[in-house]
Amino acid sequence: MELNKIAASILLSALIIMIISNVVNMLYNPTVHEVRRQPVDTIVGSQQKLEQVVLDTATLMQNANFERGKLIAKKCIACHSFEKGGSNKVGPNLWNIVGDKKAAW
Question: In angstroms, rounded to a whole number, what is the distance separating the alpha carbons of residues 15 and 67?
Answer without folding.
Answer: 57
